[in-house]
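Database export, one record per block. Field names are fixed; values are copied verbatim from the stored entry.
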Amino acid sequence: MIGSSLSRWTMAFFTGAVIFLIAAECLMVAGYGFPAMAAEAPETLLLVHTVTIGWLSLLMCGALLQFVPVLVVQPLRDEILVLPALLCLLAGLTSLLAGFLGLTGMLDTDIPFLLIGGCLLPIGFGLVLWTLGRTLWQARPLPLPARFVAVGLTCLAATFLLGTFFAHILSGLISDAVMIDFRTKVLPVHAAAGFGGWLTFTAIGVSYRLLPMFMLAPDAERTTNHIVWWSGSIALLSIIMGAPVEFILAGSARIASVIAGLSAMVALVCYGFDLFFFYRNRKRRNIELNSKSAIGAFAALYLSAALLLNLLATGTFANHAGALIYLVAFGWLTGLGLSQLYKIVPFLTWLECYGPVMGRKPTPRVQDLMVERRDGPWFVLYFAGLLGGTVALLADAPNLFRITAAMTLLATAAIVIELVLARRLFNVAAAVRFPEGTTRPHLFLPAIRNH
């Protein structure tokens, strides 16, 4: 990223994301939503959207605004739209959560919060899509990691269109839609597009750029990279487009589901070979904490696949879908997000502060902004809590789940504090902290535009 522009609002997206993550973990510790309450309860919907939109989607948007220009070696197009997008997303999510509170009876108001959220969120995501889509379009033909992102953004569009549909149903604006069994027929497509396409497929694409960069591993495109993209795209197309069409024509989506499942398994196997290749062929023998802790996230991804196969084979998927979603959301996606934030935040901070004097003044290293020996145990605690929480959900033990959720909350809070200390350059020796010509970066407000 050295030599490229810094996204002015990425740190603001990250700040909003971690606030929503900690809020969601506090709710789980307090026993709010699933598993203490039903999966379809408004309290659970509030918790789910705090995680999926507030934490994971804001995190992904902030990361892509920084990394898409790096992937395609092009400046970000229409950057002026990024701040309105962030404001629409924050206001839309706040309205959506207020709408769910209204459904619980905790908020008595005539304001149609669900409808407002259902309008503002598509506008916010639409502005993000426009900015990133234009940047990708100007860079054709796209390198492989950027093609993953392009598919992920398409899935984001499908996700928020279906989400808007649900918001209108819940607000009562689409009265005829109550005849649609959206929980069993449409909701799985919404979840697959969001978790599988927007979040997972995009994360895989970005990892093809980040892992070689951080570990100094070979980054040339390989056959398995292309198989992952093709098979993953077929899986997503089958479940998002093929399943609804087959259901309308034949009354079931069996063929589309089989194609999607087999294609996804091929993608996961080949992605596993690629991960093994990166770690085995890295030039940086002593990998940093972000790369070590990412192994926990990759393990959670494959554990999720194994759990899914087991639940389908035993016919217990409906009983334990919550455990699977928790493992995907907090093991794979959140684990990867926290591990990469641990590197990205110090990296961006270093560029903001020391980029202007790079090569002209002695500067500390990026690694000097963090203390890995002190921070490593927090990632161990996080993944231990994650595994314990998954077991608790499988065992239908909500009180045990709250205890393990407290472990992940404690670990997350500690990691976030370390990220704040990195932004404040707390761990850098005072004598070399601010060479002449440098300034202290803001905590989350706009960064310096160019270096």
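Remark 1: The chain has a mean pLDDT of 91.
Remark 2: The longest helix spans residues 317-354.
End of record.
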